[in-house]
Each structure stands twice: as C-alpha cells, then as structure tokens.
Amino acid sequence: MLFDRCGRIVSVSQREHRQIQPRPGWVEHDPREIWARCTEVLDEAMQRAGASPKDVAALGIANQRETAVVWDAVTGEPLCNAIVWQDTRTDRLVSELAADGGRDRFRERVGLPLATYFSAPKVRWILDNVSGARERAQAGELLFGTIDTWCIWNLTGGADGGLHITDATNASRTMLMDLRSLRWDADICAAIGVPASMLPEIRPSSAVYGEVRTGGLAGVPLAGDLGDQQAAMLGQTCLEAGEAKSTYGTGNFLLLNTGTEPVRSTCGLLSTVCHVLGDRPPVYALEGSVAVTGALVQWLRDNLGLIRSAAEVEQLAASVHDNGGLYIVPAFSGLFAPHWRPDARGVFAGLTRYINAGHVARAALEATAFQTREVVEAMRADSGVALTELRVDGGMVCNELLMQFQADILGMPVVRPRVAETTALGAAYAAGLATGLWESERELRDNWAQDRRWEPRMDPAEREERYRMWKKAVTRTFDWVD
C-alpha cells in the first residue's frame, strides 16, 4: 500500500498465498512464495500509482509476528516451509519445557507463557526434525527470522550482504527476548535449545536500517518494521497509555497501551512491546490474542463450501434473525487468550435439526465478537482501565452485521476509522517518522478520522444471557487432546 502525507491511500495491491496444512494441527507457508508475492505487489502498487522510487520517502514493513523461517545464510534457501503462528505441532515440546517451572517459567522475563503460538519452540522443532539442521546452526550456517526478517534480508541483498535484523515488537514474540533490556536472553535460548548465533539483530521499530537493493523500490530507505498488531496500534494512533484497538483479521488481537513499563497479566493476557520509536524508551502493551476469527470464515468457504467468498458470509448470516441457539467455538489451534488451553479443540454447541446454513454463518461471526468480549474483560481486570469505546480495524470490519453485534455484546460503541487497513498505515508511519516525512506524533493524530460508529442496541439482560451461553460452550472444548 502507498500512502500520502495525510495518511490517505494512494494505491494498493494484494495477492493471496497458499495455506499449507499437511497434517491436523500443522499450518505452513512457503517462504519463497511469500517473497515472490511481496515483489509482485510492491511493483504493482508502484505502477498503479504511477510512482518511481524518488516519489517514495521510505518503506515500512508489518508482518505476521510468530511465524518462523530458518534459511541457509549462504544460498538463501529455506530449510523447510515456515511454521505459522497457528501451528500446534510443538505441543509436546511445550509441555516438556513446562515440566520444569510450569507454563509461566519464562513469563517474568519475556512477558509470555509457554505456548505453541510463539517462535522459539517452532525453531527448536526445525532444528530437531530437519536432518543436519542443529549441526549447521551451531556452525553459524543458518539464520532464523520471523517474516519481517526474511523480507528485509531479501530486500537488502539477500545472500549478497542482506541485513539480518528484526525490531523489538517482533523479537518480543519469540519468547527469547528480555522485555526490559530488549536483548536476547542467553539462558532462555540455551534452555529452549536455539543457538543465539541464528538470531537477528534487534533494532527500533522506527529507524533507517538501510536501502532497498532490489526491484522497483531500489534506493528507497527501509525505515520501519513492526509486528502487524503493533503496527495497527500506530496506525490507529494509540500512542498514550490507556488507548486500545482491536484488529479483526485471520485472528483477533486487542492491544492496550500501558506506557513505558510492562504490566504483568494475571488474567491470561500477554505483556509485549508496543513500539520503539528511534532512540526513545520502549512503549509496552497488554495484548489479548484470539487465534481464529476471520480464519473461521475462510474455513466455511474453503473446507465446507458454505460460501463462495468471504464477503458472502454477511448476507448469509443476515438471512436469519439470530443464531438459532448455535454457538461455534473455533479452537482449531487450542484456545489463546484468556484461556491458554492447547488441549482444546473446536465445537458446535447447541446443534439441532432446526439449524441451517444461515445460523452457521451467524454463529461464526458471533464467535468473533464473543471472543473479543472475553479479552476486553480480562484487559479491564488486569489494567483497571474501563474502555469507553473500541477502535477497530482489519479486514472484517467491513462486515456491518458483525460490528453491530460487537457493539451489542460489549455494551459500548465500536468505531471504525476512515482507513481500516491500519496495519499497513502504521508501518508507513514508522518509516515516515524515521525519515522526517512526519515530524511529530501529533501529525499522525491529525490524520485519524472516524468512518462509522456503532452504538449498542441489545437489551442488557439478553446480552448477558447470550454471553453466559457462550462461556458454557467454551467449557465444552476443554480436555479434548489427551
């Protein structure tokens, strides 16, 4: 996406890449395919805008955070497919690591529980299961990175001197970085079994790292790097402690800015880095991560054939007045926040002969809203901050039926900004701040504008009864995996 100085979209190009699921619980991406798609959309967005590199102030990147890639430092060839954040193949490894100190074994230092979600167990799995990988890693022949690191390395030359870097927001999702020092923790690396020599250098989220050396953006400064949810925080200009947003994508992610001190959660949330702008102190956030929201709509399309496109789900859901008593809990990868139950698996609860395709579509959308409420309540309990409205963004916020139900089940207004793709906007803001296109955060706030606001309309008694039934359905997912 290309943005102008007012934060308005100039051009956009997007293409899907394959979701590879070779076994139950395994989710993979092809890193080479991702890089190929990136080069295609970069060139296409530039062409659509009629732009040349001299027209572009800087390039910023936002990415899926925990997805792990390991590749050969000399040839640039990945050892295997990337292991995606939703993948659960490391569940036994996580249980083994938790046997000494429990699932909070490293939480005090890294802000995260032991879970299949994060990068470090995925890297350990690759080293243990790809022939010769551990020996090569110990010899310094292999590099690890999340998708930002993989793209930056390729953008800046690849095997010919490419930068092996990441930023603090992505590093904070590996389970290997000390939250306060923003450095790799050697003891945790050793305990999990990931050689520190594989790890990228940790840089600020907004800083000039170098220049693009390939394709239609050659010569443009590369100056921003954030995990996708932290990028959306910047795009929504949630820059002060107490400000929050929720991004509706493959999963749902609610972040609350907690200022310059990390807040430890007691209610199932994650402590994470929100951003590091230049040489300023790091800003932290509490995060509630929900694994499956938009992915459930994709599942209705791709696995069940219930709809032909994701956009059709709203029309199908609107064909019925309610969910017909059906609750879908999409614990495809276990349950993330606030439950953290890797033993859980998805359920349809309340299924009767009355249920039709419309009820299934409606229950799928409602699952997103119910899971978001669970996270909002955990966030209130952890932080003492009672949100008065929820700023939303991401691909699903164009679904107006979902947004109205979200306001209803939260009992608070839901607000969509004029630019809903705030993840890309936040990456642009980080890059533009580093290169002086924007001189202050106030300029970013001036760019923000409301597009639509939904007020709650549901009777409070009905709201609480529906939420009670949702929580009952959630308990039916527990203890499925022995």
Please summarize what this structure is:
The protein is α+β, with helices and mostly antiparallel strands and 482 residues long. It has helices at residues 31-49, 91-98, 107-110, 119-129, 133-138, 147-155, 168-171, 186-192, 228-235, 294-302, 312-317, 357-383, 400-410, 422-435, 441-447, 460-475, and strands at residues 2-3, 9-11, 28-29, 59-63, 69-72, 82-83, 142-145, 165-167, 177-178, 183-184, 201-203, 206-211, 221-227, 244-248, 252-259, 270-275, 283-290, 327-329, 347-349, 390-393, 414-417, 450-454. It is built from 16 helices and 22 strands.
Written account of the structure:
With 482 residues, the chain is α+β, with helices and mostly antiparallel strands. Helices cover 34% and strands 19% of the residues. The strands form 8 sheets. Strands 16-17-15-14-20-21-22 form a 7-stranded mixed sheet. A 3-stranded mixed sheet has the order 4-13-12. A two-stranded antiparallel sheet has the order 1-2. Helix 9 (228-235) packs across helix 14 (422-435), helix 10 packs antiparallel against helix 12 and helix 12 crosses helix 13 (400-410).
